[in-house]
Write a structure and sequence with these properties.
Elements: E1 4-9, H1 13-25, E2 30-36, H2 40-50, E3 55-56, H3 59-63, E4 70-73, H4 80-89, E5 93-97, H5 104-117, E6 121-124, H6 131-141, E7 148-156, H7 158-165, H8 176-194, H9 199-223, E8 228-235, E9 240-246, E10 251-259, E11 264-271, E12 275-281, E13 292-297, E14 305-309, H10 316-330, H11 338-360
Parallel strand pairs: 1-2, 1-4, 2-3, 4-5, 5-6, 7-10
Antiparallel strand pairs: 7-11, 8-9, 9-10, 11-12, 12-13, 13-14
Helix pairs in contact: 4-5, 5-11, 6-9, 9-11
């Protein structure tokens, strides 16, 4: 089995809690040979903890290494696309954390760079690789007469889970100029994505990119691309979002937001005439928590049965990396591709437009 050498660009919480332990677990498939971060403190701490000697503050230096076959891009969202394009031009395969990018123009540029390089690009929507979700998709494809679907994702702030369960080396040594550059870049991309939008819509768009990519991409894999967005709202200054997606014979009700309760209330549910299929997710910041499949059904309208399936112990990040390895070996494009991610951006653009129209209506 080929073993690929991985360079990590961005060593923050998701890299420390999820990706590095996963790559260590999959030591027969991957080896971390280099890391990159703008924080010297993070570089030193992560490098020492995981035995990675090759460390750099500039990802261009990492990309120049002949000891790196593929990169994980887990730096701030505003730099995902440029790092992915640079990696492809350097001849590296790419697994990029979601969101892959913030704008359609960036998305098009990544697609073009991938086509020129012939390398693999996979977007990190790891929930779609969970066995419970894959089994749910198989069942839903055979369902007749879908009545309704729901994509729901209300979570507590990540820090509520991370702080009591994990040790994360903080990047508290980053210069003010680096922070200012990031904020400027984020502002430029936000302007390009949604124009001169009020703060509530900026927050809403960041919420869609940061959390809802999981939900809408899974929804699309299970149900297909909706015909259009019938309705979209934001409340609480963009921190609570709802939408209705049109699937012709049925709609999918979408809701997402964040609060101060340390839990994940996250599921995708499909209602048919005789069967309800539901996938429940938990926080990704505690590894190997079960992602479960629940089926409720009645064949005769009298007797009702309910089954709860946990396909096995394991983590969605592990399955995501296994899928990436399969693509690297086989050359098959991943399902979570740049072209696939573009569909999420199109939905988000439509949702933001509807939210803006609602804001303009008289009270």
């Amino acid at each position: 089995m080929p073993r690929f050498r991985i360079g990590i660009i961005g060593c923050g919480s998701v890299a420390q809690i999820a990706h590095l332990p996963t790559l260590y677990q999959l030591v027969d498939l991957f080896e971390v040979t280099a890391i990159c971060d703008v924080s010297d403190k993070v570089l030193a701490g992560v490098g020492a903890a995981w035995g990675v000697a090759t460390r750099s503050r500039d990802y261009q230096d990492l990309l120049a290494l002949d000891t790196v076959d593929a990169v994980l891009i887990a730096n701030p969202n505003a730099y995902h696309a440029e790092a992915a394009i640079a990696a492809l031009r350097a001849g590296k395969h790419v697994l990029v954390e979601k969101p892959m990018c913030m704008t359609l123009a960036e998305n098009n540029a990544v697609i073009a760079a991938q086509a020129s390089s012939g390398k693999i690009v996979q977007v990190g929507t790891m929930r779609r690789y969970a066995p419970a979700f894959i089994e749910a998709c198989r069942i839903v494809q055979d369902m007749d007469g879908i009545r309704l679907a729901r994509a729901h994702d209300i979570i507590g702030r990540n820090s509520l889970v991370i702080e009591p369960t994990s040790r994360v080396i903080p990047a508290d040594d980053i210069s003010e100029s680096a922070g200012a550059s990031l904020r400027q870049r984020q502002g430029e991309l936000m302007q390009a994505a949604i124009g001169d939008a009020p703060p509530a819509l900026t927050t809403a768009y960041n919420m869609l990119l940061g959390l809802s990519t999981h939900d809408t991409s899974a929804m699309r894999e299970m149900l297909g691309m909706p015909k259009c967005v019938l309705h979209a709202t934001q409340r609480q200054e963009g921190r609570a979002l709802t939408a209705v997606f049109d699937y012709g014979d049925f709609v999918c009700l979408f809701s997402t937001g964040a609060d101060n309760i340390p839990r994940y209330d996250t599921f995708l549910e499909v209602y048919g005439e005789e069967r309800v299929v539901r996938v429940d997710y938990d926080t990704p910041f505690v590894r190997n928590l079960p992602i479960t499949l629940r089926i409720t059904e009645s064949r005769d309208g009298v007797k009702m049965t309910e089954s709860l399936t946990q396909p096995g112990w394991g983590d969605a990040f592990t399955e995501e990396w296994r899928a990436f390895h399969h693509s690297l070996v086989s050359g098959e494009p991943p399902k979570a591709s740049p072209q696939d991610f573009r569909q999420d951006l199109l939905l988000y653009r439509e949702m933001i437009q509807l939210m803006a129209q609602e804001a303009e209506r008289p009270a």
